[in-house]
Design goal:
It is built from 9 helices and 11 strands. It is an alpha/beta fold. The chain is globular.
Length: 268
């Protein structure tokens, strides 16, 4: 049952933080009976005049070229979609819109990895004003939503992963006004959320938490994808059994499949 659920958050060596090859990803998927993957390589956007040495149009051209070669030579039965994970795309709005038009993405994740160009992993959470962090983080997600820059929001409460590494437990309460506004706006714009299981590998549970997933369901959210956030082939579909239990506990009967950025519901 789990193997038929598509993994919608996968990175290869195209992304700067992975060293995994496409061939190993596909061979591992086939060996494990995984029928569908969505490649979602990173692309980070920055504010002001910051010029990234890694993320530019040639990077995306190379990614699309490698994907096309993969599709032509794919010897496996695994269906592979062409996706992207946009980090902070609202910061360079015209560029993000240009890329969405230029490349035939099947699926777009909208994430917030950075605030004021500083990665969330670099914050000192013992010294951080948590309310201000929530405000800035969720405000970024709202801008992504309002500008229709993604299909699903990635790892909705990502900050808790980095805070936990510093011994700080951050579980945003469902009563939080910022969180509720993000979920309501996402639903009104037809944007879903992913259940990112990488948090289980980091001993903090799924992102978002079960409570947030229940809130999303109560607000009549319907679009949900599952993603392992795998940066190595061995992590494909890791802990999907737990994520599926969360989904059912929250009242969901379907997950979402995307092709050409068009959602289709799949019964679980």
């Amino acid at each position: 049952m789990i193997r038929t659920i598509p993994d919608y958050h996968v990175h290869s060596s195209i992304s700067p933080d992975s060293q995994e090859s496409y061939s190993n990803i596909l061979n591992t998927a086939q060996k494990n009976g995984i029928s569908e993957l969505m490649l979602t390589e990173h692309f980070e956007f920055f504010s002001d005049s910051y010029n990234s040495p890694s993320f530019h149009e040639k990077y995306l051209d190379n990614y699309y070229t490698q994907y096309c070669l993969l599709k032509q030579s794919n010897p496996t039965s695994v269906h592979v979609g062409f996706g992207i994970e946009f980090g902070q795309p609202h910061l360079q709005l015209e560029m993000a819109k240009k890329f969405l038009k230029k490349y035939p993405f099947d699926y777009v994740i909208g994430s917030c990895h950075k605030i004021d160009n500083m990665d969330l992993s670099r914050y000192n959470y013992k010294m951080t004003n948590i309310e201000l962090l929530y405000n800035n983080y969720f405000s970024s997600l709202l801008e992504i939503i309002k500008n229709n820059l993604c299909d699903c929001l990635g790892h909705l409460d990502l900050f808790k992963r980095y805070a936990a590494k510093q011994g700080i437990s951050l579980n945003v309460p469902c009563e939080n006004d910022y969180l509720q506004k993000v979920l309501k706006e996402a639903i009104s714009h037809g944007i879903g959320i992913e259940i990112n299981t990488s948090g289980i590998r980091y001993k903090i549970g799924c992102m978002p938490s079960l409570d947030i997933l229940k809130l999303y369901s109560q607000l009549h959210g319907e679009i949900v994808t599952l993603g392992s956030d795998a940066h190595c082939a061995s992590d494909l579909q890791q802990d999907f059994d737990i994520a599926l239990k969360y989904l059912k506990q929250a009242g969901f009967s379907y997950i979402t499949h995307y092709q050409n950025r068009i959602p289709k519901m799949i019964k679980i």
